[in-house]
Amino acid sequence: MEKVYTEENEKKLLRLLNIYDLSTTHEQRKFLLTYLELLFEKNKTLNLTRITDIDSALVLHILDSLLLSKFMLCSEEDSFCDIGTGGGVPGIPLGCVLGCKGLLIDSIGKKISAVNEFAEQLGIQDRIIAKQMRAEEIEAKMKRSFRFVVARAVAKANVVMEYAEPFLMDQGKLLLQKANIEEKELQDALQMAKLCGFKMVSRETFELPNEFGHREILIFQKNKKSRIILPRKNGEAKKHPLCG
User: Fold this and answer.
1) For the purposes of burial, counting CB atoms within 10 Å of the CB of 235, is it exposed (0-12), middle (13-18) or buried (19 or more)?
2) Coil, strand or helix: which one is 152?
3) How do residues 152-204 score in pLDDT, each as one tens digit?
4) 84 among annotated binding-site residues
5) pTM
6) What is the pLDDT of residues 35-77, one digit of tens each?
7) Taking a C-beta distance cutoff of 8 angstroms, is the pair 216, 166 a contact?
8) What's the average model confidence in pLDDT over 10-16?
9) Cα 87 from Cα 106, distance rounded (Å)
10) Is 204 helix (H, G, I), strand (E, B) or coil?
11) Would the annotation count 152 as a binding residue?
12) Cα within 13 Å of Cα(34), Cβ side
């Protein structure tokens, strides 16, 4: 296994995080680098990521994920859900630095098995659990139980909003991570927010280092009851969006 957790790489990561005022401990940085090590090794036999060099991964997997943590003030009793986690991004990095519980969901079983392996090898399996499911298949016990829902590169904002609504408790927040959002997608999201009982509370913008591009985090808060009954049947949100 290629060694990712090295003193040099920890210094690189620390410099990156400091640029964005992201505070981490030595132990947390060790977890984050170990996660990349596990991800790269598993990626040799299972397609989890196209990012296979350490410098890119430090920015696009770790820094990018942890930008979300700036807006996730949570206690041990709180929990977040990562919709469409893939190889564990952003859920595993968030789990390495936040003290709350996390549910990471994806429809592909092999990816979920890998993510659960990562959590176990990192020793965070008591807080971070991955489950094979589609967002529309939310179980009754999960409904209205999450303070945060996060999603990166899953679908259009209005579609993800529909996925997220049943998961969030009153005053819970949806954090949508986007590279570049077009005005049409934003307007569709604002229209969908009214249907789902959300209000947009913040639009955060960042420029990633080393010319890795633009990043936006759209933050919506659940403050009213949804006007529509959710979830709908599997696939309906994408095939027949209610807005757009």
Assistant:
1) exposed
2) strand
3) 988 999 999 999 999 999 999 999 999 989 999 999 999 999 999 999 999 99
4) yes
5) 0.96
6) 999 999 999 999 999 998 999 999 999 999 999 999 999 999 9
7) no
8) 97
9) 9
10) strand
11) yes
12) 15
For the chain, domain boundaries: 67-239
From the list 111, 114, 124, 104, the residue with the least C-alpha distance to 30 is: 124
In 3D space, the residue among 96, 108, 113 whose CA is nearest the CA of residue 36 turns out to be: 96
Q: Other CB atoms closer than 10 Å to residue 208's CB: what's the count? A: 18
Q: Which residues of 89-111 are buried (b: 16+ CB within 10 A; e: fewer)?
A: bbbbbbbbbbebbbbbbbeeeeb
> What topology does CATH give the domain 67-239?
Rossmann fold (3.40.50)
136 is in an annotated binding site: yes
Both tokens of residue 156? Answer: 């259009």
Share of the chain above pLDDT 70, in %: 99
DSSP character at residue 117: H
Q: Is 135 annotated as a binding residue?
A: yes
How many residues would you count in the chain?
A: 244
- Phi first, then psi: what are they for 206, rounded to 5°? -140, 150
Instruction: State the alpha helices, DSSP H only, in the chain.
Output: 7-19, 26-42, 54-57, 64-66, 91-97, 109-122, 157-164, 183-196, 236-239
3-class state of residue 58 by DSSP: helix
- Are 129 and 102 in contact by the 8 Å Cβ rule? The answer is yes
Instruction: Quote the tokens at residue 72.
Output: 């996730």
- Residue 235, Ramachandran bin (φ over 0: left; ψ between -120 and 50: alpha; else beta): left
